[in-house]
Amino acid sequence: MVQTLQNFINGAFVPVSGEESLDIVNPTNGEVVAKAPISSQTDVDAAMSAAATAFKTWKHATPGQRQTVLLALADAIEARSDEIVEAQHRNTGQVKAMIAAEEVGAGADQLRFFAGAARLLEGRSAGEYMENMTSYVRREPVGVIAQVTPWNYPFLMLIWKIGPALAAGNTVVLKPSDTTPESTMVFADIAKDIVPAGVLNFVLGNGATGAAMVDHKIPAMVSITGSVRAGIAVATGAAKGLKRAHLELGGKAPAVVFADANLGKTAQSIAEFSFFNAGQDCTAITRVLVEESAHDEFVAALATATKGLETGHSDDSLNYFGPLNNINHFNAVSEVVANIPDYATVVTGGKRAGDKGFFFEATVVDGVKQTDDIVQQETFGPVITVQTFKTEEEAVEMANDVEFALASSVWTSNHGVAMRVSRDLDFGAVWINTHIMLTAEMPHGGFKQSGYGKDLSMYGVEDYTRIKHVMSNLDA
Known about the structure:
This protein has about 475 residues and is an alpha/beta fold. It has two domains: about 5-250 and about 450-470, Aldehyde Dehydrogenase, Chain A, domain 1 (3-Layer(aba) Sandwich); about 255-440, Aldehyde Dehydrogenase, Chain A, domain 2 (3-Layer(aba) Sandwich), CATH 3.40.309.10. It is built from 15 helices and 23 strands. The protein is globular, with a radius of gyration of 23 Å. About 50% of the residues are buried. The model has no long low-confidence stretch (mean pLDDT about 95). Keywords: Oxidoreductase. Belongs to the aldehyde dehydrogenase family.
């Protein structure tokens, strides 16, 4: 049955003002599973007005009251995990066990972190910095936040957006990706009995809907996780209204492998980290830089590890990773592989997997050059490249020689090498002998074309606050 979705505004599901809609397609088989309305300016106005009204009271909720709401949300999403998983699987084709553990389970844990963080916001201690004048700092919520989430991790990115925003006392209008809205709307149904009306609002739609949110006069801040192109559009729109922007964008993560690493174990780990979620992860390893003397042994081990990662099966439990999100993205990834230079070699993979849906084989491409598009541009699929280096300095230079700067890793048994390379890698996250691991207590965010602002951690919560100086005359 094809479900028709609705917006969630001021604590209730409501129809949109127009008739236009989008087909939501299951990427495992290409079938339409839902219809999502395209919200107009009128619908965005309604959501923003509800959020603005709710902010008048929510900003005065005590940290303990905000904590109680977030803890209740965490419990409720765990209780309805199966429903969230099924809804998201229909839209993403992700492996169900992965959704349950890495999005719903992790999301509940991260909500509980943000619940605790609500009670730990701090500022400079009060003091007399001028004679007879006491100064102190207030850390306040920013206001209404306009947020846009991506299609690669719809539920987890929803938590990363609303968790710190609500913990800090803001209200939210959020638009999920136009291809993966269903798990967000299940969350809306969960939230309606827990979160005060108007504090959380969800509008469905396309890029024009998102632009209307960014351009709207009410939000004080806009936050997006998405492509560089989308991030630039959001930053440009926000700048016109002098709104704050929080951008988590693309990546082109290198794994720098030295010859002294355990090559077999490293190859297995890199394959698993690279092709997790079909490589549709801005932190996923996309470039392997291996010391020249270890190249042949490492590539052989990487090919073996990669061939063991199954996809394309109609039985979800047999897949290590699911399909690409949509037909346009499938065609784009296919084109990247088809257009590799003649001097490069597809070691394994490189074509469609299975006989239906948008599955693509885990693919390793060897012999590429630093200037190749496949090295410089984001593929966002199950495709990784292999290059060689001779010296530590060359490895760092090659790793940093892209426009993205979100995530990276170094693989070595030499402590000094690990410390020097992790220092010199120009990325917001550097892992040593591992990759992609995230924890609620540590910040996540990038530099350069990967955007700015931090998700997770207290840094993420502070991004959703503003600082006010208050000075009091002691002689008044």
